[in-house]
Amino acid sequence: MDRIHITGGTPLNGTIPISGAKNAALPLMIASLLTGETLELINVPRLADIAALTRILGNHGVDHMVVGKRPGQTAETGQTVRLTASNVIDTTAPYELVSTMRASFWVIAPLLARFGEAKVSLPGGCAIGTRPVNLLIMALEKLGAEIEIDGGYVVAKTKNGLRGAEITFPSVTVGGTHVALMAAALAYGTTVIDNAAREPEVVDLAECLIKMGARIEGAGTSRIVVEGVARLGGTRHEVLPDRIETGTYAMAVAMTGGDVSLVNTRTELLASALDVLASTGTEITALPDGIRVRRNGGGISPADVTTDPFPGFPTDLQAQFMALMTLAKGQSRIRETIFENRFMHVQELARLGARIRLDGDLAVVEGVERLKGAPVMATDLRASVSLVIGALAAEGETQINRVYHLDRGFEALEAKLGRCGARIERVRA
Ligand SMILES: CC(=O)N[C@H]1[C@@H](OP(=O)(O)OP(=O)(O)OC[C@H]2O[C@@H](n3ccc(=O)[nH]c3=O)[C@H](O)[C@@H]2O)O[C@H](CO)[C@@H](O)[C@@H]1O
Ligand SMILES: C=C(OP(=O)(O)O)C(=O)O
Questions:
Q1: Ligand 1 pocket test: which of 120, 137, 239, 338 has the largest number of ligand atoms within 8 Å of its C-beta?
Q2: Has 216 been labeled as part of a binding site?
Q3: Active site includes 208?
Q4: Which domains does the chain have, with CATH numbers?
Q5: Of 91, 174, 179, 368, whose CB is crowded by the most CB atoms within 10 A?
Q6: Spatial separation of the C-alpha atoms in residues 75 and 183, rounded to whole Å
Q7: Which of 126, 184, 277, 371 is catalytic?
């Protein structure tokens, strides 16, 4: 298995281009199943999760084409991908494919809405909690689907098509909102989704669906209204920038010090995280095409955060923020309210010398003077990158094992950091 070696202690200086968002590209690709016409997606990141979903869509019969590179494009420039689901041959998504990635479960919605049936394995994904799909099933049942669980598969059917309904989520779910949106887009009549997720990735999906002919109002608020249409068509859509990748590199600079421009991204995608970063003594300035992040000399001030659905502090940045707080001048308190088991990075950060105490959903971090390199193990996607951040700031060498987690969500990580002065290399097994 590949490993990453990092020799820490060098500030980061330069420019990092931000990729298209994994968590937007995945539902957008899945939306291709809603139409027989071609969906062209621009700025799709090159990631293991995208490749995994491409295999799943291929298994359904979706035609996948990567449009040729244009002059000026580099390995880190997102790809343009054309997906055409004109000849869907199979409405089953098998265990072997779905178990590697949670978002793949969402194919159930377009398959059911367009073909009246779907059989999808219960999902896998990052080991950060139990992650049930009861709310996704509830939404589909409200729309009239008959659902049973059989041999680890969710089998969904509808005799006369889905029908618009009132769907009220008891708690905010991003995947549930994606599924409800896609299914309602092709249902008869009006669907109201209450307590909908307001994440920018939900808005991106809704905007693409609208271009495909869907009638959706209110995406980005907690009440979305969908008027079902009989059919959807193809379109061209650019995937929005990855706010989690943006926040991750911002935290890396906050920790190592230096001056980095994060380009092809937008401040409003992560306002709450940038406010918290500013309160730690990091200078954040908006650029026309991104964000400039600077910390020169001054120490890192401690700050408390609680993860929350958008526009709150994202759970997908909690591990990275914890890495930063390990070097703060004092105590910080980090509460994780979204996933019950998202503290796997704590014991690995401790190997670098961090002092963190866990108490239920609360992590209390006592800042230390310095971290020291050590061998560590990547456990899930965001935990892995928190170790990269810690290692960049630690003295000496850190070896990160099991880096396949990183490849799920960070495009060209070593190249992007390396060009800013980080001493980072991948050792291939
Ligand atoms: C591919 C993708 O976009 N993944 C993101 C998505 O995951 P995902 O869509 O899986 O996360 P959800 O928003 O659905 O989960 C939020 C909470 O609701 C619970 N829940 C969810 C569904 C359900 O049927 N029942 C239930 O109890 C979950 O266990 C969790 O505790 O949003 C999460 C929260 O912002 C992010 O961390 C993930 O990176
Ligand atoms: C948890 C994540 O992904 P997934 O929902 O696919 O497990 C993530 O992107 O941080």
A1: 338
A2: no
A3: no
A4: 3-15+241-427 (3.65.10.10), 25-238 (3.65.10.10)
A5: 179
A6: 35
A7: 126
